[in-house]
Design goal:
The chain is built from 18 helices and 14 strands. The chain is an alpha/beta fold. Strand 13, helix 18 and strand 14 form a beta-alpha-beta unit. Helix 1 crosses helix 3, helix 9 packs across helix 11 and helix 12 packs across helix 13. Bound molecules: nicotinamide-adenine-dinucleotide and uridine-5'-diphosphate-glucose. Belongs to the UDP-glucose/GDP-mannose dehydrogenase family.
């Protein structure tokens, strides 16, 4: 079996950065080079001050500190890294298409294609090319075609190795992965490549957790895993609406059904809706693929997961407006949290964006606090929607670094991300300085109902 000593990863993002840091850390004899065309990002990965790495993930900076400069390198010299590596991971972004055929649903594979063409141009000896990005089923075929028709007559073996890490727990998920999935061709060279990649992961994971499949099953499993996870969140969120009408409590429901070992307790937390760069994108992609094969019932079924998620975000914003006497115009509402979940600075598809936009449409005055998200990002997220001018967004929404002072004379607070620090605040002090009646809308179910009521808040908890 081929022993891998040099790995290159194209794409130094949320997946490429942490994944390669862990591989380098666990495989000291392998040289790992992560490359990206974004120079700023590479500079940030190479920064002296590890608190300014481009990605915030608990445990990441310690791992980077141990391995960077030894066998872990970040560079913009894509061609040299491709040339030297025996195994090349493609970990570039695959966003939803915003133009042309499949707009709004299909995955945009232009970055993947550029990578394939670049590898074909540069490679002078045999390479194993690993799809790390999340891709539509049968993408490996397209990559193979490009490599075979434009390459310098070298042999390329394509593997699919989707990533299952979740943001905020990336390092933990990588170090203790439930499973690693490796899809490859059922040929002798395909088997050799699968075993070579397997050997990399076997440095720290038990062999039984490394699953080998054919390429298509591996590609499709990734989309299906995300669809199943998101479907659980949408399922419990629809039930949260029913609980609010019937005096049932969604947490008690989650507990009651989660005790059934066939259902299990995870991913049953009702919320303002799921966000993140993956769930919506991957389900839309699944829907698009199903429809393109004429499987309309299959497509409709999965599309409902997204429709329910949009409904939950609208419902939460609507609840704030209706509770505040059907008008939030000119009212000061403090938003706690902008990230799509705690312990990350990522805001992609965060429910906070849609909820803020809905409140701004009603002319609310918003004050946003998030412990990890920067002001520029918040405005960029809103401006991207194009609902109103950038000047108007900046006039109606301010970003604050003091979550307590922000609540002075506020009409309401809405909790949109489940940051731990929110539960530790002095809620009595906050209550004392807010306008009365003082409202708290808890979209993450993290505060203590009894305490909030005792203090005197009008406290609304999603699903109760
Ligand atoms: N974010 C997650 O938690 C997560 C988890 C599992 C899988 N995924 C999947 O992994 C893939 C990457 O996601 P991400 O969140 O890391 O994206 P990202 O946007 O954070 O990073 C992608 C990087 O690729 C770089 N890039 C694009 N084209 C390039 C090229 N031709 N050459 C060199 N660099 C190039 C970009 O500059 C960017 O820095 C996506 O397919 C995503 O669906 C993401
Ligand atoms: O019970 C739950 C669980 C999650 N969420 C929300 O769902 C979203 C996604 O959360 P999570 O899955 O933890 O984070 P991601 O980083 O988006 O990770 C998902 O998407 C990744 C990208 O494909 C996959 O690799 C991971 O396995 C998959 O969990 C977030 O907004 C969460 O707040 C809930 O509302 N309730």
């Amino acid at each position: 079996m081929k022993t891998i000593t040099k790995i290159c990863c194209i794409g130094a993002g949320y997946v490429g950065g942490p994944t390669m840091s862990v591989i380098a850390n666990k495989c000291p004899e392998i040289q790992v080079t992560v490359v990206d065309i974004n120079k700023d990002r590479i500079d940030q990965w190479n920064t002296e001050n590890l608190d300014t790495l481009p990605i915030y993930e608990p445990g990441l900076k310690e791992i980077v500190a141990e391995s960077r400069g030894k066998n872990l390198f970040f560079s913009t010299d894509v061609d040299t890294a491709i040339d030297e590596a025996q195994m090349i991971f493609i970990s570039v972004n695959t966003p939803t298409k915003t133009y042309g055929k499949g707009k709004g649903q299909a995955a945009d594979l232009k970055y993947i294609e550029l990578c394939a063409r670049n590898i074909a141009k540069v490679a002078k000896d045999d390479k194993i090319v690993v799809e790390k990005s999340t891709l539509p089923v049968r993408t490996a075929q397209a990559i193979q075609n490009i490599l075979e028709n434009t390459g310098n007559d070298v042999h390329f073996e394509i593997l699919s190795n989707p990533e299952f890490l979740a943001e905020g727990t990336a390092i933990e998920d990588l170090l203790h992965a439930d499973r690693v999935l490796i899809g490859g061709n059922d040929t002798p060279s395909g088997q050799e490549a699968k075993d070579a990649l397997s050997a990399v992961y076997e440095h720290w994971l038990p062999k039984e957790r490394i699953l080998q499949t054919n390429v298509w099953s591996s590609e499709l499993s990734k989309l299906v895993a995300n669809a199943f996870l998101a479907q659980r969140v949408s399922s419990i969120n629809t039930i949260s609406a029913l609980c609010e009408k019937t005096d049932a409590n969604v947490q008690e429901i989650s507990r009651a059904i989660g005790f059934d070992s066939r259902i299990g307790p995870k991913f049953l937390n009702a919320s303002v809706g799921f966000g993140g760069s993956c769930f919506q994108k991957d389900i839309l992609n699944l829907v698009y693929i199903a429809r393109s094969y004429g499987l309309n019932e299959v497509a409709d079924y999965w599309e409902q997961v997204i429709i329910a998620n949009d409904y939950q975000k609208r419902r939460f914003a609507g609840k704030i407006i209706s509770t505040l006497y059907n008008t939030v115009s000119g009212k000061k509402i403090v938003l706690y949290g902008w990230a799509f979940k705690k312990d990350t600075n990522d805001t992609r598809e965060s429910p906070a964006i849609a909820i803020a936009d809905a409140l701004l449409e009603e002319h609310a005055e918003l004050l946003v606090y998030d412990p990890k998200v920067k002001e520029d990002r918040i405005y960029a997220d809103l401006d991207y929607l194009g609902t109103r001018s950038p000047e108007e967004n900046r006039r109606l929404l301010k970003v604050t670094s003091d979550p307590i002072v922000a609540t002075k004379e506020a009409h309401a607070i809405a909790l949109l991300t489940e940051w731990d620090e929110f539960t530790a605040y002095d809620w009595q002090k906050i209550y004392d300085q807010m306008l009365k009646p003082a409202f708290v809308f808890d979209g993450r179910r993290i505060l203590d109902t009894a305490l909030m009521n005792e203090i005197g808040f009008n406290y609304y908890k999603i699903g109760e």
